[in-house]
Design brief:
There is one protein chain. By secondary structure, the chain is α/β, with parallel strands linked by helices. An eight-stranded mixed sheet has the order 5-6-4-14-15-16-13-17. Strands 8-2-1-12-19-18 form a six-stranded mixed sheet. A three-stranded antiparallel sheet has the order 9-10-11, with no helix packed on it. The structure holds flavin-adenine dinucleotide (FAD).
Length: 393
């Protein structure tokens, strides 16, 4: 069986690896450079802490186990000379700064605990023991030992390298422009700027551009870009030891609001830079630097970690999250075009959820039991159908 995967970001890389290892002849078609899209312009948090009980949390819990094993698998397979994916199970600390926020955080973490998440309520003093430089001006804190982190671009490269070792061909500078269809309506390949590629199945893993790719293949898919910005400080001795964020971040991820939202998310990299996020804004693919956004992110981060006021910003960067209006990724075959699969719409969790999504894809294609219930991620799920109808009008 031949599979064409559109997009060489972390989603395409994880899918290529999963399918090549299952015996498929895989070609990844990428219009730019490999790992040049959002997967190179993001952070690498592998979070369960920000997911409410439900399908996305189930996917994240499966992913958490997979990443733990993958760290060793990829290192053993690619050898010591390949750059490390910098997997670190550093844990997450979520804090509230208001009394309303404290109540909401305690209720939220209680529902997560009931769904199998490790979530420990801490006193302000105990939170301070975990993060000595954190402000004491907090009203609640919950510690999530399952949260981890990777270096996202290196991880996508590692998955792609592993896929290549399993026989995957990665063709860069190849833009997919349309579908080839058989007389039965089934997709049997794609057309590109450089010619045609026959395939038995086609996987749309084009991240924030997956809506445009779907449309070029003859179907609608309501994936929209959601801009996010991150500030990077100069290197410093480690003073932030976990992923620390304000509880209102969870509300921002689940909001459908197009207007600017910022919430404080702070972490250190292995090299000693501090990454400070983050913003969410639906402004199309507008990538101009907005100093108002930078100012708002910086100001909020200093409230959590006052010492940051003395630190220098080295650079800022941003990317486009693949946003779905019902806040769930799409993983599965498109009933409108047999043979066409979508794996996209992971918004701000596509690094963490990539390998788990690839597991579901593989199971769906091979007709095996899915490691996570796949029904909530189908293209024709009830929460997505109204958006598809709206697009068809
Ligand atoms: C600021 C920010 C912070 C984030 N932090 C996190 C985090 O901490 N943890 C987390 O899990 N997620 C995070 N995310 C989200 C994560 O980055 C994305 O969900 C993920 O990278 C999406 O990966 P992808 O492979 O689906 O898309 P991409 O990496 O964008 O890959 C899609 C590829 O498709 C290619 N393509 C598009 N059109 C075509 C075409 N016609 N033909 C061929 N190729 C095409 C593109 O060139 C691109 O390379 C963050 C995002 C942002 C913006």
């Amino acid at each position: 069986m031949r599979a064409v995967i559109i997009g060489a970001g972390i989603t395409g890389a994880a899918c290529a690896r999963a399918l090549a290892r299952a015996g498929f002849a895989v070609a990844v078609l990428e219009r730019g450079a490999a790992v040049g899209g959002t997967s190179a312009m993001c952070e690498g948090n592998l979070l369960v802490s920000d997911k409410a009980p439900g399908p996305e949390l189930a996917l994240a819990l499966h992913a958490a186990d997979r990443w733990y094993a993958l760290r060793d698998e990829l290192r053993d397979e690619l050898g010591p000379d390949f750059p490390s994916i910098e997997y670190e199970r550093k844990s997450g600390l979520v804090v509230a700064t208001t009394h309303t926020g404290a109540r909401a955080l305690k209720t939220f973490s209680g529902t997560q605990r009931a769904a199998g998440v490790e979530a420990r309520e801490l006193s302000v003093d105990d939170a301070g023991k975990l993060e000595p430089f954190l402000t004491r001006d907090i009203t609640a804190a919950v510690h999530y030992p399952q949260d981890a982190q990777v270096q996202p671009a290196a991880t996508a490269e590692a998955l792609l390298a592993s896929a290549r070792r399993a026989g995957t061909e990665v063709l860069t500078g190849v833009e997919v422009t349309g579908a080839m269809r058989g007389i039965d309506g089934r997709i049997n390949g794609v057309s590109t700027m450089n010619g045609r590629h026959g395939a038995d199945i086609v996987i749309n893993a084009a991240g924030p551009w997956a809506g445009a790719v779907a449309s070029s293949l003859g179907v609608s898919l309501p994936v929209l870009p959601r801009r996010g910005m991150v500030l990077v400080t100069t290197r410093m001795p480690h003073r932030i030891f976990r992923k620390v964020y304000d509880a209102d971040y969870v509300g921002a991820t689940q909001s459908g609001d197009a207007d600017l939202q910022t919430s404080t998310v702070v972490e250190s990299t292995a090299a000693g830079n501090v990454l400070i996020g983050s913003s969410r804004q639906r402004i199309g693919f507008d990538d101009r630097l907005d100093l108002g956004v930078v100012r708002e992110i910086a100001a909020k981060s200093m409230r959590l970690f006052p010492f940051l006021a003395e630190m220098q910003i080295l650079r800022t960067y941003g990317g486009f999250r693949p946003y779905m209006p019902d806040h769930l990724p799409v993983i599965g075959e498109d009933p409108r075009v047999p043979g066409l699969y979508h794996v996209t719409g992971h918004e701000g969790a596509g690094i963490g959820l990539s390998v788990a999504s690839a597991d579901i894809l593989r199971a769906r294609i091979l007709g095996e039991d899915s490691p996570v219930d796949a029904a909530p991620f189908t293209v024709d799920r009830p929460t997505l159908v109204p958006h598809l109808r709206e697009m068809a009008r």
